[in-house]
Amino acid sequence: MPFMTSEITLNGKTIVISGASRGIGEAIARAAATVGANVVLAARKQEGLDTVAASIGEQGGSALAVACHMGHPDEVTNLFAKAKDTYGAVHGLVNNAATNPYFGPILGIEEPAFDKTVEVNLKGPLLASRAFVEQATSGASIVNIASISGMRAAPLQGVYGMTKAALISMTQTMAHELGPIGVRVNAISPGLVETRFASTLIENEDLLKHMVDRSPVGRHGQPDDIAGAAVYLLSDAATFMTGQTMVVDGGFISG
Ligand SMILES: NC(=O)c1ccc[n+]([C@@H]2O[C@H](COP(=O)([O-])OP(=O)(O)OC[C@H]3O[C@@H](n4cnc5c(N)ncnc54)[C@H](OP(=O)(O)O)[C@@H]3O)[C@@H](O)[C@H]2O)c1
User: Fold this and answer.
1) Which partner for 193 in 2, 56, 120, 221 could form a disulfide, CB atoms 3.0-4.6 Å apart?
2) What are the structural domains, with CATH classification, of the chain?
């Protein structure tokens, strides 16, 4: 019988979301909990996670907050062990945490900033995906939060853009390698979204105007604009979709 329900649900699924203490990760966690998922929230600082988890709980959802630096293997192992202890199997993973410590010409980046960007934006998703797959069953879904900066030149954010391009490559390779065990892997490339991460861009009036003027929807994004795509990709409505990158940018790069 073809799959169709009146609404997309994550009932009975447990989803691990990195970078879930604010911004896009928080919006995805709230949306997933709203449609029935148990959510496991990860970020480095426990306090921010606890606030989001408590708020999800007050709204009738179930959330577990686990402090975790996504680039540190032992902490990632601990994250999935805690998720499993609390909820049993984990069905979805959103690799959302990322960093961009350097803003400037690509050749000017110093080695510590380069290493940190690669550690959080690439090693993190790889480690988390490995820990996830070790316990995943058929029907599981990984969603990688990439960026339109990984699909075009990314002036002044070059190494960040490189990591997002590599994350899209990782998405395609993992989709092929994990397809046979029933794990789907997709990416979302957001455009400019108003978060702490993007504050330098949002607060630059000229740059914001340039972006908004080129956007068919005539505005920049909010974290909730990205959440629906993530919920869809995590859900059984997307069982025929893998290895893809959904661009959610208000049409910015389509012009
Ligand atoms: N905002 C945009 O315009 C935009 C556009 C395209 C793509 N994106 C992507 O969207 C994702 C989320 O970004 P955002 O804008 O929502 O950023 P944000 O509001 O600054 O949130 C970043 C989250 O990541 C966590 N984090 C940072 N480093 C971490 C680490 N090493 N280990 C674990 N957690 C870590 C932060 O918490 P702690 O500080 O407590 O660790 C926080 O929860 C990123 O992948 C970003 O590249 C954003």
Assistant:
1) 221
2) 14-248 (3.40.50.720)
